[in-house]
Specification:
alpha+beta, 2 domains, four-stranded antiparallel sheet
Length: 139
Amino acid sequence: MREIFREYAIQQGVVLKRVKNDHVRHTYKCLGDGCPWSVHGSHMIDRITIMIKTLVDEHECHRVYTNKEAKVNWIDSMFENPVKINLSVSVKVISDLLRENYKVSVDIQRLYKGMRSYNVFDFNEAMDEVRAINHTAKS
């Protein structure tokens, strides 16, 4: 349920506080000044389905563009395929896409940290490619 509300907070541009967050119950409130938005939910007996029991779906706060919920793992999940296709994509492009598509501004250091995970050299994969080339050359 955390991932759901992380995505909601980023899309709506709000900052949410976890009031209760255990394995059974989840309660979130908006940290905006005087904002009445809140939600309370709990897991059903199957431990997969979540039932929203209370929802006040009115925001009276302003949008936040520097959202702390846009963490490295979230950024990686949003841009995994484009970056793997083009490893030379710059951090500035990713920053612009985040600002354009999600209306969130992320500091450059966090973007570099996310990009570092894609630039890892996979030795086993490279050796498989070398073996395949050698095998076709011998044939």
